[in-house]
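User: My instructor asked us to take a sequence, write out its structure as tokens, and then describe one feature of it. I'm not sure where to start. Here is the sequence I was given:
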Amino acid sequence: MKFPHYIPEPIKQQATHYLDGSGSWEGWIVCLKEQKEKLSKIDEKIAYWKLSKQDPDYAGYQLEKLRTEKLEDEQHFADLDRDINCINRLIHDASMKETYKLLINEFFGDETADRKIDQFIFFAWSANINYAKPRESVNSATEISKEISATATKLAKLLNKIGETGSNNPNEFFSIPSLLESTDNHGHDFHIWKSMKNVVLGNGSNEEAANVLRYGWEKAPDLPKLLNTVARVADEFKPSCGYFADAAIMSRQRNPKTEYIRGYADLLRKGGVNLSSNILKAIAITATVVINNPDLIVTYDDVRKALALTA
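Assistant: Let's start with the prediction itself. The structure tokens for your sequence are:
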């Protein structure tokens, strides 16, 4: 791979490793080609099952499985293609010359300069993700947790209410051991739980241990109390995606430019890079290259404004 003369050595090594591979690692360019071939084979299999005269239900099952596999592999292909193109832009876009100059000046005399320059570019393309997905995930989890809180509270109240009627209610309405006793597990754990159930609930052959367990279960909170705990935890729950995506989507309004800047800056901060004025200028240039939208230019002021909310 050929590099412009101004590309620092750590970036040459990074780009070569990820794109062309090293040692037994083939690199993403080869992976992309293999992924394209894999998708072509999936299309052939889909065509086969569409025309198959085998049992319609079985053919339908195979088609559904292949279509799911294709969606996953298409996403993998798109991610690889995105990252390969982004790294190439970070190497060959002429405006990046100023970024590398700023980085070299910023880290001059720093014994960790190579690592920090390497991180700056690594985080640049790593932060280039679709933030709509984590935003949707957090929004969905927030709504569901509200529903869980309300539903658990309502069920706890109903159980307590029926308990106050004096009717002969099922033990499972209140007793956790009774609920466990009446509930089977499924799949591989069915037989394991069936064999463990008596021991866990204090019905085992060791009388002394069984007495201790039964006493413990007698003093355990009942189901309505546990449901109230679920309601409280759900009410207090603040969904997150973890790592840099949380910083990126902290505002309610979706803005791809702001999301990228915040996610990128969060990675840099956590990597030990001080967000000085030189680094903010470098972020602005790099963000413009990464986002790669002819109608969008990221300025130094854009970066400062985006990060003012996270400072």
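For the description part of your assignment, you could build on this observation: The chain has three domains: 1-92, 98-131+249-311, 134-236. Try explaining in your own words what that tells you about the chain.
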